[in-house]
Design a protein that fits this description.
5-stranded antiparallel β-sheet, 26 strands, Immunoglobulin-like, about 30% strand, 9-stranded antiparallel β-sheet, about 550 residues, 3 domains, alpha+beta
Length: about 550
C-alpha cells in the first residue's frame, strides 16, 4: 500500500507541476515547444524563443507550426493552420475520441502541457527498477516519467495507446511500478498531443478535419557519438509529427506543411530560399550586411507522407513509386508581412483559401508562383520559390534563381503533397531544424549546405540512429500465399509492435497494435488477390516482408 500511495502521490505532484511549455536544451540550441504544437516563440509576449548558441542571448526567428489542408468528397476545403494567434487558434491540446473525433474542455485542460525527458532519466529508472529501488520507494523517478501519457481515457473512447512506452508486462497499461518506461527519440525529448476539432477554427475559419497530432521534439547530446561524428547535430533539433485522421471523412489533395518565420538580425533584410534535391528550406540575412556571424537557418524534411502513384522519385533514391516511397518537400512558397506598400496578393493569408493556395504555391489572387524575379506575374509556373542552383533541371531552366532585391520580412511554407488522408490513417512527417554559422568568411549558406549534406549522408547510412533501423529479420509469414489468415511468428523479444499491411502502392490497409509478436495472426480475407507487404514497427525500428493474397 505504501508503494501504491507513493506512486499516486508522485503522479499527482507531476500533474500539478506540469508545464505548458518546455525547452530543448541538451545541445547548443535552446528551443521552446508549447502545448498545442507551437514552436520557437512565446505566444503571450510574441518574443522569439529559439536561442543559438545556447547561453548567448541571441534569439532567431518566430513561430513555426503545422498547416494541414485538403478537400472532402464534396470538394469542400478542410484546413487547420496556425501563425500568430491574432485571430485565435485552429489547434488545441489533447487527443480526440476514436469514434467521433471529438473532445471536451476537461481533456483540453488535462493535456494543456508538455512532457520533457532526458534519456538519462530513463536509463536511471531502468537501473533502479532492476535493483528494486523503484519498488521499495528508495528511488523516485522524475515527474514526467511518472505522468507520461501512455494511455488514453477509454471512457471517452480515446486511443488506448497514446505516447510510446515499453510495456514490461504486456498489459497495455502504462505503469512505472510494473517497470514500464517511455520510449523517446534522441537524448532529450519533449512530447505533446494536440487536435484541430475542439472549437470552430478561429484562425482560418475553415471547417475542421478531425486530426489528432502527436509531436515529439528531440535533440542529441554533444557526447553522443552521432554528434561527435557530425558536429552540426550540436546545432540541430528534430520535430516528429504523427498525424491521425480521426474523422470518418477522406481528405483528398491533402497538403502537410510547415510554416516558419525566421527573423535573423534585422528581419527587414532577410532572404528565403530552398534546396529542391536535398528537401530543405532556409532563411538567411543579407550576406553583405555589416553585422557578422549571423546564421543561416534551414529546415530539412526527413520524413513525409507515402505516395507511390505520382510518377516522381520523391525520395531521390533513383526509383520511382516503389512501395512505401515517402514524399519530400513538393512545394516551397514565401509570403511577405502585410506592411504598407506590400502588394496584397503576396501578403499574409486572410482566409482558408489563402492558406491552402500558399501550400500549393499559388498566390492569394489565384495566380501561380512563377519563375524569376519575386515569383509573381511571370509566364513559367514553378512549385519552388528561389531554388538557387538546386533545381536547374526544373521549369525555371539552367539559370539559378535566388532573391535579388534588398530583402524583406518574409515567411515561408514548405509542403508535402498532394496525398490522401484516409479515415483512421496514420501519417508521419519529421523536420530537422539546423542553425549554421560561418564566422570566418561570413557565408553561413555554405556552412548550412555542408550541414545538410552531412545529415543526408547520415540518413542514408545504416549505422546512424536518425534513420529507422531494421529489426532482426527473424520472423516468418505463413501460409504464404494465403487466402484468409496470415500467421506471424518471430523470435523477437521486444514488446510493443505495430503491424501494418501495405499494398503495392504503399497504402496502409490494416494497422494493428500488438504486444507479443512471438505468435499472432491478422485477417486478410477481405483483401483482393495480389501482392502485399507486412511491416513491423517497434519504436524507431522497422522491417518489412512480402506476402501474396490468393
Amino acid at each position: 500500500m505504501k508503494i501504491i500511495l507513493l506512486s499516486l502521490a508522485c503522479l499527482s505532484s507531476a500533474i500539478m507541476n506540469s508545464q505548458t511549455f518546455e525547452y530543448l536544451d541538451i545541445n547548443q540550441v535552446k528551443a521552446r515547444v508549447n502545448s498545442g504544437g507551437d514552436l520557437h516563440w512565446d505566444p503571450a509576449t510574441g518574443n522569439s524563443a529559439y536561442e543559438c548558441p545556447k547561453g548567448s542571448s541571441k534569439t532567431w526567428g518566430g513561430p513555426a507550426s503545422l498547416w494541414i489542408g485538403g478537400l472532402d468528397a464534396g470538394n469542400q476545403l478542410h484546413l487547420a493552420a496556425q501563425t500568430y494567434h491574432q485571430s485565435g487558434t485552429d489547434f488545441w491540446p489533447g487527443p480526440l475520441s476514436t469514434n467521433n473525433a471529438t473532445t471536451n474542455s476537461v481533456t483540453v485542460n488535462q493535456y494543456n502541457r508538455v512532457w520533457k525527458l532526458n534519456k538519462s532519466d530513463i536509463d536511471d529508472f531502468i537501473t533502479n527498477y532492476a535493483n528494486g529501488n523503484v519498488q521499495n520507494g528508495s528511488y523516485t523517478p522524475v515527474a514526467d516519467l511518472l505522468s507520461w501519457p501512455g494511455n488514453g481515457d477509454m471512457s471517452q473512447n480515446q486511443d488506448v495507446l497514446l505516447a510510446p512506452f515499453m510495456d514490461a508486462n504486456a498489459d497495455d497499461v502504462y505503469s512505472p511500478m510494473d517497470g514500464d518506461y517511455p520510449i523517446i527519440k534522441g537524448d532529450q525529448a519533449i512530447f505533446t498531443i494536440f487536435n484541430d476539432n475542439y472549437l470552430p477554427h478561429q484562425n482560418t475559419g475553415a471547417p475542421a478535419i478531425g486530426l489528432e497530432i502527436r509531436l515529439m521534439a528531440y535533440a542529441y547530446a554533444p557526447t553522443n557519438t552521432l554528434v561527435t561524428g557530425n558536429p552540426s547535430l550540436n546545432y540541430t533539433t528534430f520535430y516528429n509529427y504523427a498525424i491521425i485522421n480521426r474523422s470518418p471523412n477522406t481528405l483528398y489533395n491533402a497538403q502537410i506543411s510547415l510554416f516558419n518565420d525566421s527573423d535573423i538580425g534585422n528581419y527587414m533584410d532577410d532572404y528565403v530560399g530552398c534546396n529542391v534535391t536535398n528537401a530543405y528550406a532556409y532563411t538567411y540575412n543579407n550576406i553583405t550586411s555589416t553585422v557578422t556571424n549571423q546564421p543561416a537557418i534551414g529546415i530539412k524534411q526527413t520524413m513525409g507522407p507515402v505516395n507511390t502513384t505520382n510518377a516522381i522519385d520523391d525520395n531521390h533514391d533513383g526509383m520511382i513509386d516503389e512501395p512505401g516511397e515517402q514524399m519530400g518537400m513538393t512545394n516551397f512558397m514565401y509570403f511577405s508581412n502585410s506592411f504598407p506598400g506590400v502588394p496584397l496578393q503576396i501578403s499574409d493569408p486572410n482566409s482558408a483559401t489563402d492558406y491552402f493556395q500558399y501550400m500549393n504555391s499559388i498566390w492569394k489572387d489565384g495566380t501561380p508562383l512563377t519563375c524569376g524575379g519575386n515569383g509573381y506575374g511571370g509566364n513559367i509556373t514553378s512549385n519552388y520559390a528561389y531554388p538557387a542552383n538546386s533545381f536547374t533541371t526544373g521549369p525555371c531552366g539552367v539559370a539559378p534563381w535566388s532573391e535579388g532585391d534588398a530583402g524583406s520580412d518574409k515567411k515561408f511554407v514548405m509542403s508535402s503533397g498532394q496525398t490522401v488522408l484516409l479515415p483512421g490513417s496514420f501519417t508521419e512527417v519529421e523536420y530537422a531544424y539546423i542553425t549554421a554559422f560561418d564566422s570566418i568568411t561570413n557565408d553561413p549558406l555554405s556552412a548550412l549546405s555542408s550541414a545538410m549534406n552531412a545529415l543526408r549522408t547520415m540518413q542514408n547510412s545504416s549505422v546512424t540512429g536518425i534513420k529507422e533501423q531494421p529489426l532482426d529479420n527473424s520472423f516468418t509469414l505463413s501460409p504464404n500465399p494465403t487466402n484468409g489468415i496470415l500467421n506471424i511468428s518471430s523470435s523477437l523479444k521486444t514488446t510493443g509492435f505495430k503491424i501494418e499491411v501495405i499494398d503495392a502502392l504503399g497504402k496502409v490497409l490494416i494497422s494493428e497494435d500488438h504486444k507479443d509478436i512471438s505468435q499472432t495472426s491478422i485477417h486478410v480475407e477481405n483483401l483482393s488477390s495480389g501482392i502485399y507487404f507486412v511491416k513491423l514497427v517497434s519504436g524507431e525500428n522497422t522491417t518489412t516482408k512480402k506476402f501474396i493474397k490468393e
